[in-house]
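Narrative summary of target 7.
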Amino acid sequence: MDVILHASLLFSAFLRTLFGMEKIRAAAARVRSGYRALAEHKYTTIAGTLVFFLIISVVPFVFWLTLILGSTPVADALLELELFDWARDLIIYIKGNAEGATRGAGIFFLATTLWSSSGFFYHLRRSGEIVYRCDRTQHGFRVRLSAILFTIAVLLYLAAAATLLFAVLVYGMVLPRILAHLCTYAMLAVLGFFAAWLLNAYICPYRVSPADTAPGSLITAGLWLAASFAFSVFLRFSDREKLYGALSLVVVSMLFCYWLMICFTAGAIFNCRRLQGKAQVHRRL
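Modeled conformation, tokenized:
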């Protein structure tokens, strides 16, 4: 009886190990499949291209955001968050110049800065045609007009999101420190998800339901928070000046933007592959 008992225990342990290994193999296969999908879509190249146009568009974009928010203490309070350690000095510098430019700005200046601000979103939409392998030709003026309208929508969203987050920070002062941090970063996660959702809806050249782009947006928001936390830890325990020299602020900011765009591109590719896997027929815009 003891032999039978030991044999049954050994056999059950073997089965548990076997099925455990099968799960590990299945997980590894999914990781390899996901990486192949990213590589097939040239995700690093798309992310690098988006970073280039993001850098070109960020100054006029901050100008318009400063124009909307005015002299409210919202931006200053948000920059105190540890999550923005990676570019606090750069954002303060750009914001200072933007505040100076808003005084006495004319119609022509406003129009040209709005046009420049839309450059990133114009190329974001073009990148979406590459990711989703859209074979139709879009007129450049039509895409540019949609980019300008989307720029205005994003500006309004960011202004509203910043105001809401500022309110959370203010009311968090009466809460215990840990609870206040949890509320702040939970709100950041929610706002990041909706920001990614907006971008994923815009980058897709087909008309899809909001539920179709939600999974990739959730992945993007999670990766954004993880990347921001990792960079905050990196800056806290490293010496940027020794590593990158006098250009440390610019290099770190560009590197962080590159990782943000990789996170976003990964979420967009996930949505694309998911829709292809469902064999869903899209109605063209």
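The CA atoms of residues 34 and 270 lie 8 Å apart.
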